[in-house]
Specification:
The protein contains 11 helices and 2 strands. The protein is mainly α. α3 runs antiparallel to α6 and α4 packs parallel to α6. It comes from Geomonas limicola.
Length: 267
């Protein structure tokens, strides 16, 4: 009979089940913001990252984005899970710039491009980690048709799903002998394994998942009517609460108590 994992093993197991861009329920200032406000802040930070060119500007943006990330009560371990793929990308981009333009002219452009990519993506990760699905749909349907809002919502929610898929496919292919360790991915001789054993299966899984989502939505009658065909749980709870309050506020029928019979007669 297998023994139960120790405290350290259980902690490692729980850590291995966590993926990037997953919603985390915390009571933080960022969580208390509306979905539209967080979306506006994210768009502003991403646009600033795309326009940053000087080291001072990028340094200030890194500081502001980190403060925004940590204000959501997210840890440095969460930050690493969210940006680790982009760190591997930076490890490829910077040497390529140095190889093409030389270390003197290529080092800063490589660092700048890699930093801009991470800063452009990170506000979106904060949005996914701090916003519930119902809040996203409620905010999107105010400005978009419900079909478009559903498409945007599903596309955004696929991000943590594909992080899990990448981890599962990588673990399975490594057991089959594929060279997919982080340090092995930096070697160009191992890039065929990266493409054949990770990218192609991920594309097949993505197409299969998209087909399953489309069939599921079609079987539920999605798109048959010009308006949304699902109920809002928040509105249902709110209406039930208003109905209960109204019933409690209604005056009760007057009662007359007689002294002789000590009985109550309602008019």
């Amino acid at each position: 009979m297998a023994s139960a994992p120790g405290k350290g093993g259980l902690r490692r197991t729980l850590r291995s089940c966590e993926y990037g861009c997953q919603f985390v329920a915390h009571d933080s200032p960022v969580h208390r913001l509306s979905a539209g406000m967080k979306l506006g802040i994210g768009m502003l930070l991403s646009a600033s990252a795309a326009g940053g060119r000087t080291p001072a500007t990028l340094g200030a943006l890194v500081l502001v984005t980190l403060c925004y990330y940590l204000a959501a009560r997210l840890t440095l371990a969460d930050l690493w899970r969210d940006i680790r793929l982009f760190m591997f990308q930076a490890a490829l981009v910077i040497p390529l710039y140095c190889l093409v333009h030389g270390p003197a002219k290529g080092l800063w452009p490589g660092i700048r491009i890699s930093t801009q990519i991470i800063l452009f993506y990170l506000p979106g990760a904060v949005f996914l980690r701090t916003t519930r699905s119902s809040e996203v749909m409620r905010g999107l349907r105010r400005v978009l048709p419900y079909r478009v809002s559903f498409l945007v919502f599903v596309s955004v929610r696929f991000v943590p799903f594909f992080f899990r898929e990448i981890a599962d496919i990588t673990a399975a292919q490594r057991l089959r002998g594929a060279r997919l360790l982080p340090r092995q991915k930096l070697n160009p001789r191992n890039w065929p394994d990266l493409f054949n054993c990770l990218i192609l299966p991920l594309m097949v899984r993505a197409l299969k998942t998209a087909d399953e989502v489309a069939r599921s939505a079609e079987s539920r009658g999605f798109g048959m009517y010009p308006e949304r065909t699902f109920f809002s749980a928040d509105q249902l709870i709110r209406r039930a609460g208003d109905t209960g309050t109204a019933q409690q506020g209604e005056p009760s029928a007057p009662t007359i108590r007689t002294a002789a019979s000590n009985s109550t007669v309602s008019s």
